[in-house]
Amino acid sequence: MDYGVWWIRVSQRSGESEGKEAQLTKGPGRLGGLSITANGKPMILWRDNLSPGVFLTGMDPQTRRLTRPRRLTLDENPSMGTDWTPDSQAVLFVSNRNGTYKLFRQDIDQAVPEVLVEGRRIVLPRLSPDGTEVLYLAGYNPENAGQPISVMAVPLAGGPPREVLQRSNVAAILCTWSPSKICLLATTERLFAFDPKDGRG
């Protein structure tokens, strides 16, 4: 998204605007640190156009240090990776591309991801304990934490999503690994355990 700095003359007496506004600068990324000299001519600002991406790295077994990271998501869209498939050969991540949130699965040796599901404000995909489904939060709104959020599940092999449960003030979701069969839902007040198959807990 492009952001810019606009200028308009303001009356020193009334504080009302005078004339039309004019754009001084425009470009990709958020703006901050705006500063103008006393004579009102030179202006400095910083522009943040970094987008989160998904990177892969290994660990050297001898030195126990991370190896050089390799970028998995090759476009400039913000992507948030949060889990792996059971065979550790693909990453699950969410990205807002073309104005629509999508949950992706991408093999570590592939350049193009596969769409599992798309919807309204999808975040935090987590693999279910048995490894057959991906659970995620839908309808998340950071400006209104009290709005009900749905915990959804979609088959890892593909298929229609289903609602597991709905709750307000959700902060995070986590799932255990097999042989355990529960997932955890964190709200701003409590931590709940629930069954990912039917939402009971």
**C-alpha end-to-end distance:** 42 Å
Could you describe the largest sheet, including whether it forms a barrel? 4 strands, antiparallel
According to CATH, the fold-level topology of the largest domain is Neuraminidase
Number of structural domains: 2
Q: Low-confidence runs (pLDDT<50, min 5 residues)?
A: none
Fraction of residues in helix: under 10%
The CATH superfamily of the largest domain appears as TolB, C-terminal domain
C-alpha Rg (nearest Å): 23 Å
Tell me, rounded to a whole number, the average pLDDT. 84
Instruction: Return the string of H and E elements.
Output: EEEEEEEEEEEEEEEEE
Q: What general outline do the C-alpha atoms trace?
A: extended
Q: Give the tally of β-strands.
A: 17
Share of β-strand residues? over 45%
Strand order of the largest sheet: 7-8-9-10
In terms of topology, how is this protein built?
Elements: E1 2-10, E2 17-28, E3 30-36, E4 43-48, E5 55-56, E6 70-71, E7 79-84, E8 90-97, E9 100-107, E10 114-119, E11 123-127, E12 133-138, E13 149-155, E14 162-167, E15 170-175, E16 183-187, E17 191-194
Antiparallel strand pairs: 1-2, 3-4, 5-6, 7-8, 8-9, 9-10, 11-12, 12-13, 13-14, 15-16, 16-17
List the defining traits of the structure above.
single chain, 201 residues, mainly beta, Neuraminidase, 2 domains, four-stranded antiparallel β-sheet
Walk me through this protein's architecture.
The chain has 201 residues and is mostly beta strands. The protein has two domains: 2-48, no CATH class; 55-194, Neuraminidase. 0% of the residues lie in helices and 52% in strands. The chain contains no helices and 17 strands. It has strands at residues 2-10, 17-28, 30-36, 43-48, 55-56, 70-71, 79-84, 90-97, 100-107, 114-119, 123-127, 133-138, 149-155, 162-167, 170-175, 183-187, 191-194. The chain has a four-stranded antiparallel β-sheet with strand order 7-8-9-10, with no helix packed on it. It has a four-stranded antiparallel β-sheet with strand order 11-12-13-14, with no helix packed on it. A three-stranded antiparallel β-sheet has the order 15-16-17, with no helix packed on it. Strand 11 (123-127) and strand 12 form a beta hairpin.
